[in-house]
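Appendix B. One record, verbatim.
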Amino acid sequence: MPRQNRQPDELRPVEIVRGFTRTAPGSVLMRTGQTHVLCTASIEETVPAWRVASGAGWVTAEYDMLPGSTPQRRPRSRERLDGRTQEIQRLIGRSLRTVVDLPKLGPRTIYLDCDVLQADGGTRTAVITGAYVALCDALAVGRRRGLWGTDVLTAGVAAVSVGLVDAELLLDLDYREDVAAQVDCNLVLTTRGEWVEVQATGEHATYTDDDLARMMALGRRGIERLFALQRAVLADRLPQQE
C-alpha cells in the first residue's frame, strides 16, 4: 500500500503542546498526524485503599474517545467501559508506572486522564507518549509544592505502532494502514532501552520470529525519535536526563 507523503520508516508529523489547559498540573495536546489526544495529569493526596499500607504512591490512567473523535459518533462511556477501553487504560497506567519511583511519590496518586479528540490510528501509542510529558509537568508542580524530591522520575517512556501491510513493514500506522495490516504491533519502550510492552497481533496472517525482530527494530528507531521530541519540549523539566 503506497503511503501518503512519507516513507515506510517515517513517523507522522508530531506536535507536543504543553500547558494546553490551565487548570491541571500537567496538560498536553499531542498531535500525531490526524490523531489528536489530550492528556492531563492531576495530583491527589490519597491512594487506593489497597495501597495505603504500603506508604507508596500510585499512577493510574483513564482513557476515552470523545463522541466526535470518529466519523460515526461514539456514545460516551457513562456506566460501563468496553474491553478495548479497559485494556488501553491499563496499558497507559503500567507504562507510566515503570518510570516513576512509587515509594518516593509518597501516599499520593497521579491521575492521567487521556481523551481522544480526533482518531486516525495509533491513539494508544500517542496517548502514552503525550501522557509522559503531562506526567513530567505534574511531577515538577509537586516538587515545587514540596511533595517529593527531584528523583521520582526514573526514565522516559514513549510508544509507537508498526505493521506489516502488503508484506511491507510500516512505522506509525494511520487508520487506513491499520485496517489493511496483516500484522500490527504496538510497542512501548523506556529510555533505559527496556521494553514495557510488545503487543504483536496477527490480524490477517501469522508472523515469524524474524518479522517480530524487524518490527521491534523499526519500532525502537521510531521511539528514539519520539524520545528526542519529548526531550526537546521538556528541556526545562529533565535536568537529570541531560
